[in-house]
Design goal:
Largest sheet: 9 strands, mixed
CATH superfamily of the largest domain: Medium-chain alcohol dehydrogenases, catalytic domain
Radius of gyration: 29 Å
Shape: elongated
Helix content: 25-40%
Distance between the termini: 49 Å
Number of strands: 32
Structural class: alpha/beta
CATH class of the largest domain: Alpha Beta
CATH topology of the largest domain: Quinone Oxidoreductase, Chain A, domain 1
Length: about 725
Amino acid sequence: MRQVLQDIKTGEIRIVEVPAPRLQRGGVLVQNAFSVISAGTERQSVSLGQKSLIGKVRERPEVVKKVLDTLAKEGLRTTLARIRAQLEAYRPMGYSSAGTVIAVGSDAEEFQVGDKVACGGGGYAMHAEIIFVPRNLCIKVPDNVNLLYAAFTTLGAIALQGIHQAEVGLGDNVMVIGLGLIGQLLVQLLKAGGCRVIGVDLRERVVELASKCGMDKGIVWDKGEIERLVREFTDGRGVDAVIITASTRSSEPMRIVPDIIRDRGRVVLVGRVGTTFPYMAYSNKELEIRMSRSYGPGRYDPNYEEKGIDYPIGYVPWTERRNMEEFVRLLSLGKLNLEPLITHIFPLDKAKEAYDVVLGKKKEFSIGVVLQYPTELLKPERKIPLTVKHKEKGVKQEIRVGFIGAGSFAQAHLLPNVQRMEGVVLRGIATGTGANAQRIGERFGFEYCTTDYQDIINDPDIDCVFIATRNNLHARATADAVRAGKAVFVEKPLALTYEELEEVINTVEEHEGRVMVGFNRRFSLYIRELYQSITEHDFPLVIAYRVNAGPLPSDHWVLDKEQGGGRIQAEVCHFVDTLIFLTRSKPLQVFAYSARGNGIPPNDNLTANIRFQNESIASIIYSGLGDDSFPKERIEVFGGGAVYVVDDFRELIIVKGGKRRRRKQLSQDKGHKEEVRRFIEAVKRGGEMPIPFEEIVATTLTTLKIEESILAGKPLDIEI
């Protein structure tokens, strides 16, 4: 299928052939009929993308700090790889569209194939021939509503949310500052609700357009004239609310408000403007400034948008979906007239020209710019195109590799190292979105890309599979790949539950599977040297492993128990594996505590004490409460009269027999390159995996027991 994408590096708008999205639970596949280019939001995005690298930095200085932090922690090579992954990517465009349902996922049975629907959401209602949309971002469209007009639904929801925040109704006087597309929709919605509306803009033509569509009074920006008009229009009382939809760095829209609004009026920010305002003037009138959350409550909440969990109407009457429904209802009743707002309709293959109009490269007046898609529906017997082929290399190599998932970690640490290996060809890549699959496949030279990971599993030409998806898919994809006879490299963790672990174990035993988990630290230079330095006479060992993990945003996917499993499963497993490697022994018992209270996320801060079969003991101290600038990891090993220290994988210290030996390097070596090399070599030879499967199971089981011990408040035995 075709999709409109922006090349982040160059800013160029491209129409790219990409794999169609995969049908998922809780949503529908929609064949778009129309989608609307948001002149405000998308113009900003495209304009930023077309700036030079220096220009991008000036617009987003916070990114520079992140780059410098990464450079300090992970070194130049990793930093450059991460920057390249960010720059050499596609940005999907669009967030408001309408079309026809062509497939329905489980938990979305309120829809049927053939339903006309309006869709919303960045990353979902994109400018693409086929889209996947979760049910809370998709609403049915009545037969009497043209899909051309329904495509404006998300933009209408943004306008409606601004009205809800203003709390205006019949007879209220409202000023709208900014009469672009959102402002035009606001004017009509306010009039439909019985408000009296004054509109202001810098452009005379949009003021005239809003007046033709029902606005009571309009004026081109002139501070003195605006104040005079408001006095006349409101009999000197001032407007009840000001809704600002303009997009400008200037704070003039905020500065004029106290001169035109009544006491205790409301100021609602829908657009992005400068927010320097006269404090005393606002204070003296007790003005209330409110932000409008895009389409409405539910926006930016993955539980609402991705998982379909609705808010109770008694507490949240206007969610983003209910805003969308209300806009379509008003369309159905004939309360809105969108025809005058549609200035351009471009076929999909003319999308570049459409953006030239929006960006002002073509000097044409525009408000509503719409993309139109081919009307022929997919026939039931025609398979939705989930795979796009690139040019096959036609060269016989030793092994062919498939990738399932390729986020920033895989692009920085796995793919470059696999790509550099001799005797390897990159065969197929599957990611969650077609745009990512296409661009990453193109960048690293894969023969094809897909959005269905089963294409990788079932490809008879693929010898081994790298799995780097979100954590909840690891066990399932691993078991599927083993059944298909593939060697598997799966990023940690192997499993999130005992049931998942049992399935993988049974599958590996039944099919004599070859599985390796990305426990990279045991392959780092200093951990390997430490391992070699410890002799039989040093046991038992006492080990302290301190991890300054730093905080994660509360909405980070790792903290979602369903997707990420939490930080213990997602990361502490690394440290457990390193301890098993260094002690050369099986863990027997674990006792873990978690710090709680004062708003601390559960299981973000813990100690885990582990006893091993050879009487070694170890303690993991893991905390998200520290300062990110402090080194992350420090391992101290005591045994046989010696002390061994690995400090953040940059320094190794060995103190033995009164002598101190110290090695230090500028950049970290966490073992990513070596683990990939060892795995590929094992696949080539057909020999044992670099990490014994028994140790992988022991690590996974111990990590699960750590979380269980915290809940139980007591030590737990580990039976392997």
